[in-house]
Design goal:
With 246 residues, this protein is an alpha+beta fold. The chain has five helices and 14 strands.
Length: 246
């Protein structure tokens, strides 16, 4: 009996030790980022494998306040989808966790929905949301956002080739990128007057903007419009005025 108890105790200790080691050996090896385009399709995946970048993003995710009891209902599609690849054992396949991320432009926070049931629904404060956006959006957009071309238009089919600007400043490019990412789709089929501008950011959009409102339209879908947030209207309008009045 004593021998059986002794063997059971040794087995129990081994389970605790190896179980603890397995849990602590969880290693983030890769993150795939897919930005959601204005037509609500996913863009091409961008892969992060640099260890410093992975640790930086993982540190931000540790600041998320999770609630596994909430049943999330979101009004629109996420801004970014990420897939985290975790390695527990080199001899076994990696475990994947997907995160859908909504960047709330009005208050600067972020909402995250996880495929991990122990996390489920999370919120991130403004400071960490800004850091996360810089890590994810800038990484996924770096290749296609090196410059932005903006033309004044004559009609839907014609631009003024003599009246255009090329934007290369990263902050200005980010303002336009954020405006497009945060635009809200307007339901129904619409007819619009001739656009004021044509904006080429890798994908091309028509733009209508004033002090009070802003609207964009994908040139490939001229029956659907998207409205800019109040913050983006101000930023884009001021940027346009500064570029074309100089």
């Amino acid at each position: 009996m004593k021998k059986w108890i002794g063997k059971f105790f040794v087995l129990f200790v081994c389970i605790l030790v190896f179980g603890g080691c397995s849990k602590s050996s969880k290693q983030l090896t890769r993150i795939d980022i897919q930005k959601v385009k204005i037509d609500e399709n996913y863009g091409e995946a961008v892969m992060i494998t640099d260890q410093d970048e992975l640790e930086s993003i993982e540190a931000i995710f540790k600041q998320i306040s999770w609630d596994k009891n909430i049943i999330p209902k979101m009004a629109r599609k996420e801004d970014v989808k990420t897939t985290f690849f975790y390695e527990f054992d080199k001899n076994r396949p990696e475990k994947l966790t997907e995160y859908s991320i909504w960047l709330n432009q009005e208050n600067g926070t972020a909402t995250i929905i996880s495929s991990d049931k122990d996390e489920n629904y999370g919120k991130l404060d403004k400071e960490n949301s800004e850091a996360l956006e810089k890590q994810l959006i800038d990484t996924s957009s770096s290749e296609s956002r090196e410059k932005v071309n903006i033309y004044k238009t004559i009609s839907f089919s014609e631009v003024n080739e003599k009246s255009f600007v090329v934007i290369t400043d990263s902050e200005e490019i980010n303002s336009i990128k954020e405006a497009v990412n945060g635009a809200e789709r307007v339901s129904g089929i619409v007819n619009m007057a001739d656009p004021q501008y044509k904006v080429d950011i890798g994908e091309t959009y028509y733009l209508w903007v004033s002090e009070k409102s802003g609207t964009i339209m994908d040139v490939k879908d001229t029956h659907t419009i998207y409205t800019l947030s109040n913050k983006s209207v101000k930023q884009v309008n001021e940027l346009i005025i500064s570029k074309f009045d100089n």
